[in-house]
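Researcher: I'd like a structural prediction for the single chain below. Treat it as a standalone chain; there are no partners to consider.
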Amino acid sequence: FSQDSAMRPGMTLKSVGITGFALAHSSSGWFSTKGAGLVPMDGTEGEPIGKSQGLASDWVEAFWLFLDPKDQREKILVGTPEGLSLVEGRGVVEKNVFPYPETWITGVVLGKTTVESEIESTDSLSSFIGKGKVIYVGTKSSGLWRFAEGGWVSLTAENPNFPLKNVNRLYHLGTRIFVCTNEGLVIFSENIFGYDEFRYKGFGIKNYKTIYPFPTITSIQKIVCSDDFWVASNGGLARYIRRKSLSDSIYADNLDNT
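Model: Treating it as a single chain, here is the predicted structure.
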């Protein structure tokens, strides 16, 4: 970006908060903002996508970028305080696909279903994400939701063990969904018949899930993962050191481990 608007109209620097960043390729991607929409980055003077272009809100809290396997076209699930929008290429496909309008979306990830239905869903959202895909959506006050086979399910309502209804961020690591909440870090398997590392049944069948509280229960905000993972919370910064014999099952189902 340039501060010289006369040289490059529309490319002036703005004082705006950044909520997310993702690359589609090594030289192109998108970043999301607190009030200036979703902004493309590819070396051109691409216009931001905001409410005037059909997005649910100019404030974008979270988004998930993926490529259509058929033609490698960019598709984006866009979480806003006004719902979940769909973007394809440089245009808004649908303003809001979340069943409850004006729900503040705080996190969105795209995963894979482990049990495929013989009946193919024909609704617009299923067609947008493709066969065998699942969407997980975190909200500010309505807990965690899952979209699969053409319908939305509240995982918070299904599972009373889930802490409160406030989800700060969602992450997809290995075959696990990591959920940052106000009462700790929740980790569960994408496989609804899978187990967590304590050998309890997985999240999808209304039983136990893995919760990592810290010295005192505290709000978890963000995580960063390599071999280990770092957890940022209101109580400070914590590092989980990955040891093969202890924590492989945190990232993937491995029922042979003891």
